[in-house]
Amino acid sequence: RLAGGRPSRQCVPRHGLSIDVAERRRLLIDSRRLQSADDRCRFVLEDHESRYLRKVLRLKQGAQVDVIDGQGHLWVARLLDGHQLELCSEIEAPSQTVISPRPKLGLAIALIRRGMDDVMRMACELGVDRLQPLDCQRCVPQAEHRPERWGSILQEAVEQCERLWAPELHDVCPCAEWWDTPGPNDLHLIAVARELESPRLSELLATQASVDGAIWLSIGPEGGWSVQELDAAQAAGWISVSLGDTILRSSTAAVVGVSSLSNWRTLSC
């Protein structure tokens, strides 16, 4: 499990507790569990969470932990006996609240044989909000499909990179059904290679003053999109974009594309 890295930045005093810049770990807890805390704002840790705090981080009773719900909220908590956490404020009064970034960024990527774990982690760190695995015609039989592992990787990445909003991981979708799935107000982009007339992703984004819906970027398998898939995408209104002059592996293309989307959102919003 990733240990996390950067110090917490919160400096909000609440209930006599001063939150400084000292390093403190984060723990992502489902909001439904947080809502089930008792009248003393205490809840029981699951076994893997308790092991992580006590064995990996070596936290002692009374140590502080930042608890996040993946929905934009952060609470400061104290470790009680190794099996319980106590929030230092009411559930209705988080120490920090962040509005969900807009527009939402979505990455749809074909199932690949190697590198999907890294794609999930880096996409999360770069700010992707939605992740859609695709089953395409040229996906190899050995392509990875490990949603439980990916969910764990995303949780660890959220805790490590200090996001307050966790990305959504959708079930795998057949490529033939995918092109008509995003909303009509979304910007639909599909990465292609060897199509000289396709604009570079960064150039196309530079022409976008704003986007009403989400921005989706679709990345194909390492064997490339089939002719049928490209025709179907074009018929559904997807815009072909280039990610550069060289041919990239699917995992590399995903990171390059997501970096461009994230930079554009940071500079435009």
Tally of individual helices: 8
The run of helices and strands is EHEHEEEEEHEHEEHEHEHEH
Rounded to an integer in angstroms, the radius of gyration calculated over CA atoms is 21 Å
Q: Taking all residues together, what is the mean pLDDT?
A: 89
Distance between the termini: 33 Å
The portion of residues assigned to helices is 25-40%
Number of strands: 13
Low-confidence stretches: 1-21
Summarize the biggest pleated sheet.
7 strands, parallel
Give the overall shape: elongated
Query: Given the helix and strand composition, which structural class is it?
Result: alpha/beta
Sheet-strand content, in percent, reads 15-25%
Describe this structure in words.
With 269 residues, the protein is of the alpha/beta class. It is 29% helix and 20% strand. The protein contains eight helices and 13 strands. Strands 7, 8, 9, 10, 11, 12 and 13 form a seven-stranded parallel sheet that branches. Strand 8 (130-135), helix 4 (147-161) and strand 9 form a beta-alpha-beta unit. Helix 3 (116-125) runs parallel beside helix 8 (250-268). The longest helix is centred in the last third of the chain and has 19 residues, at 250-268. The protein is elongated, with a radius of gyration of 21 Å. The chain starts with 25 loop residues before the first strand and ends with a helix. The model is unreliable at 1-21 (pLDDT under 50).
